[in-house]
Amino acid sequence: MDILQIIGIGIIGAVSALLLRSQRPEIALQITLAAGVVIFLSIAVPLSTTVSSILSLAQKYGLDTGYIGTVIRIIGIAYICQFASEVCRDCGEGAIASKIEFAGKVLILIYAIPIVEALLQMIVEILP
Predict the structure, then answer these.
(1) pLDDT tens track for 18-74
(2) Which residues make Cβ contacts (< 8 Å) with residue 5, sequence separation at least 6?
(3) What residues contact 86, with CB distance under 8 A and at least 6 apart?
(4) If you ran DSSP here, which 8-state letter would residue 24 be given?
């Protein structure tokens, strides 16, 4: 989907939700969620293609795809947590949004440990 279409969906969803928020807040929330889901789904296929391309490039040049996959997972966690926390903020649930962000940071830290370990091992091998 073209970026202009995504922007259009976002603007239409935001304006619709703004107009309905005072009269029907529950419908405004549903419009906001629906616009977010449509935008998220519209980038799923291009994102999948990009991840596949990155993994095939890593294989082509003999890089460890495990680490590339881990970095992609970390980026995915960051984006998904940001998306979910913004949805919670739109619903007026800032406390839950903060908890989602915290959980995402913890998961990123957990996934990053093998990469940090590999980097430290490379540094130790380089040092005399």
Answers:
(1) 899 889 888 988 998 899 899 989 998 898 899 899 889 988 988 888 888 899 999
(2) 42
(3) 36, 97
(4) -
d(CA 122, CA 116): 10
What is the longest distance spanned by two Cα atoms in the chain? 71
DSSP notation for 61-103: TT--HHHHHHHHHHHHHHHHHHHHHHHHHHTT-HHHHHHHHHH
Task: Pick the closest to residue 105 from 78, 86, 73, 70 (CA basis).
Answer: 78
Tell me the pTM.
0.76
23 membership: H or E segment, kind and range: none
Could you tell me which of 98, 53, 43 has the C-alpha nearest to residue 76? 43
For 22, which DSSP code? T
Q: How far apart are CA 125 and CA 121, in angstroms?
A: 6
CB atoms within 10 A of CB 12: 12
